[in-house]
Protein: FAD/NAD(P)-binding domain-containing protein
Organism: Xylaria bambusicola
Amino acid sequence: MKAIDRLTADALIIGGSHAGLSAALTLYRSVHTTVIFDNNMPRNSYATAVRHTSTWEGRTPAEMREASRKELVSTGLTTFVDATAESVLRTSEGLFEVTDNTGSRWQGRTLLLATGSTDIFPDLEGYLDLYTRGMYVLFSEKRVRTAS
Ligand SMILES: Cc1cc2nc3c(=O)[nH]c(=O)nc-3n(C[C@H](O)[C@H](O)[C@H](O)COP(=O)(O)OP(=O)(O)OC[C@H]3O[C@@H](n4cnc5c(N)ncnc54)[C@H](O)[C@@H]3O)c2cc1C
């Protein structure tokens, strides 16, 4: 699928990390087409391994996302746009129209926001340097690291 004037997707999904990918997979099962916008800034982009997800233990979140992308591309129903969704408007026909940061416009019948959340770090010197390398957000991560 190419940017519009073109085809109307069943759903435009802003955010192509775990939530957006899972949504697209669910929609594919109902034979719905999706366009996923992602600018590759997932919350777990720090040096960290996947935990609590059966069969992915210890691998990187990027590997997991890449596998999911391949799976979705192979369905032929999902299009990935590696760009920032900059604005959304409602057209007079009731469609959602996303404009990305390359200026391309995309239309869809529904809009799904999977943009994640942003961490606000304490203003402590060295905190970010140690984040996930000694300063753990997940207690279970600390236990795994200190046990090994
Ligand atoms: C250090 C750390 C370790 C973690 N480890 C684990 C773990 O081991 N196991 C586990 O289950 N969970 C873990 N988590 C939690 C997990 O990372 C989050 O639950 C998960 O990333 C949430 O997924 P999401 O899709 O909701 O949001 P995100 O992963 O934050 O993804 C949002 C996506 O939307 C994109 N985006 C946002 N706005 C736009 C826009 N306007 N246009 C285009 N793209 C946009 C971003 O670039 C990003 O890719 C960890 C979190 C952290 C911080």
Remarks:
- The chain has four helices and six strands.
- The first strand starts at residue 8 and ends at 14.
- Residues 14-20, 37-44, 46, 48, 50-53, 84-85, 114-116, 132, 137-138 surround flavin-adenine dinucleotide (CB under 6 Å).
